[in-house]
Amino acid sequence: MTRETAPIPLAAPRPPPAPRLSRRQKAAIIVRFLLNEGANVSLADLPDDMQADLTKLMGDMRYVDRATLADVVMEFAAELEAVGLTFPAGIGGALSALEGRISPLTAQRLRKEAGVRQAGDPWQRLRTLSTEQLVDICERESTEVAAVMLAKLDVTRAAELLGVLPGEKARRITYAMSLTGAVTPDAVDRIGLSLVAQLDDTPPRAFADDPSSRVGAILNYSRSTTRDDVLNGLDEADSAFAEAVRKAIFTFPDIPTRLNPRDVPRVIRDVDQERLIAALGAATAPETAPVAAFLLDNISARMADQLRDEIQERGQPTPKDGESAMAEVVGAIRRLADTGDITLLSPDEEEDASGA
């Protein structure tokens, strides 16, 4: 009788050693994993060479096993947990992050020294420009460039821009939009970069508002004799500038035509009552009396009667005190307009209303 020998057990196959992955390969695995999970991964802000490397890596790689995927994901999650703060890449990114918080002169100097342009999508910056700046670009650039810019704006901003452009210019630009179907993304990007480069080459302005507005603001608080003397001198030196200053000036006699009647109670509450009574009491001349009537007619009857009684009790103020009180009323209106609590009619709106 032969003795049966027990079968020799075979050793279980050993798993292949985990591959050594570079950080770029791990990044490609994470991107592929997120895409598989349905995440909306935006890679457009990465530098072009990094986007190209990532694409080539994803094309060269075939598959990874579950254990390797788990290790890469866990390592990625651990790195995310360890990150406390991130900074923008390079001087361009830092300038973009600090835009509006450092002086324009410093930003322009740093940009020229480093030889960098505005980082990111140039059209994102162009969309933040005011309508006046966009109009200036349309007037300065060719119709085709203006059409591309109009196509890149939000619909509401584009409609607003067309509304302020001259009719013939607006028609040419909208027709040119029909020819933009074949424009490549690279051409659109180059147009945006060119427009932004022109903005960066514009010297920064020391004053935010134009000279006529600044002179008008000064003359608002000047005595009437000084104001008239300055305006007469400006008429002789530069009549166009003098006219612009007159439009920027807002004085006590301008109140009925520039102040909305529904805003009168708000203005009355913002002026010291004693100074208001002095201003109304001094408003007896032909050019100021309509102002007092306008203010009193647009508040409650009870308050108007109370003010009339106090005006009569106080008596006529001195010309100097009366003019100072009128300036305080004007100053209160200007402050409310600057803070957005009320809106003044512009001189052009006033002329349009009178012409209608």
Describe this structure in words.
With 356 residues, this protein is mostly helical. Among the domains are: 23-75, no CATH class; 120-201, Annexin V, domain 1, CATH 1.10.220; 250-355, Orthogonal Bundle (Annexin V, domain 1). It is built from 21 helices and no strands. Helix 1 crosses helix 2 and helix 8 (143-152) packs across helix 10 (167-177). The longest helix has 20 residues, at 319-338. The relative contact order is 0.05. The model is unreliable at 350-356 (pLDDT under 50).
Looking at CATH, the homologous superfamily of the domain at 250-355 is Flagellar motor switch protein FliG, alpha-alpha superhelical domain
What is the terminal-to-terminal distance?
128 Å
CATH architecture type of the domain at 250-355 = Orthogonal Bundle
Number of strands: 0
- What is the structural class? mainly alpha
Q: Approximately how much helix is present in the residues?
A: 55-70%
The string of secondary-structure elements, in order, is: HHHHHHHHHHHHHHHHHHHHH
Q: Uncertain regions: pLDDT < 50 for 5+ in a row?
A: 350-356
Percent in strands = under 5%
Alpha carbon gyration radius:
35 Å
- Average pLDDT confidence is 82
**Regarding CATH, which class of the domain at 250-355?**
Mainly Alpha
Largest sheet: none
